[in-house]
Specification:
single chain; 206 residues; alpha+beta; seven-stranded mixed sheet; 23% strand; globular
Length: 206
């Protein structure tokens, strides 16, 4: 199921290729910035369960703190094999993950934030600014793109209803022709983090 292109925040393009799983219950709305085309996309809707990575979920459950780092398996028939690693933090209002390809030390291929509906009441007013400042610090977002993406995130937050929101920033480090592989990994991590946060009761205290 391709990502649906957005009409907000100015320039948009055809959505990145993606593989989504649908299920009953609340939906996850995925938005993102593609560094290759310098465009914003979303929302793409997919179900909150069904493609969670069981190994990743188990590792998160038994992590000694609110942070975890390790490999993520995102196999897909007919797609090139790829190794990904994720650095995950559970914050008071969302979860943030950095996805690295192979053992790259150049920076993350993707940075994403998962905001469950039940944590929206605690979402920081400065969330969009802080998330994008973090992405710029990591080198995944240019100064020129920051204002456009900030406007897009603000609009999505204002029009999200009761959905879980995922915001993803692509750094462009991952080859464009292998984008479907990274897209699958982003969705897998997002769904897994959503389930992990739901099991924790939705709220944590920092």
């Amino acid at each position: 199921m391709p990502r649906v292109s957005s009409t907000s925040a100015g320039k948009v393009t055809a959505p990145r290729a993606t593989i989504s799983s649908w299920c009953d219950g609340g939906q996850i709305h995925l938005y993102g910035w593609d560094a290759h085309s310098q465009t914003w996309h979303g929302p793409n809707e997919f179900g909150p369960s069904g493609s969670a990575d069981k190994r990743l979920l188990r590792a998160l459950r038994f992590a000694p703190s609110k942070s975890w780092y390790g490999p993520v398996n995102c196999p897909a028939s007919g797609e090139a094999a790829a190794r990904f690693f994720a650095l995950v933090h559970d914050l008071s209002d969302c979860a943030v993950a950095l996805i690295y390809c192979d053992e790259s030390k150049a920076g993350p291929a993707e940075v994403l934030a998962v905001i469950p509906a039940e944590r929206r009441a605690r979402l920081r007013d400065e969330f969009a600014f802080e998330f994008l400042s973090f992405a710029r610090f990591l080198g995944t977002l240019s100064a020129e793109a920051e204002f456009q993406v900030h406007s897009a995130i603000t609009a999505a937050l204002a029009d999200s209803g009761s959905h879980t929101l995922v915001f993803s920033i692509s750094s462009g480090l991952w080859p464009g022709d292998l984008d479907p592989v990274l897209s699958r990994c982003v969705e897998t991590v997002a769904v897994t983090l959503r389930q992990w946060l739901a099991e924790s009761g939705g709220l944590t205290d920092n």
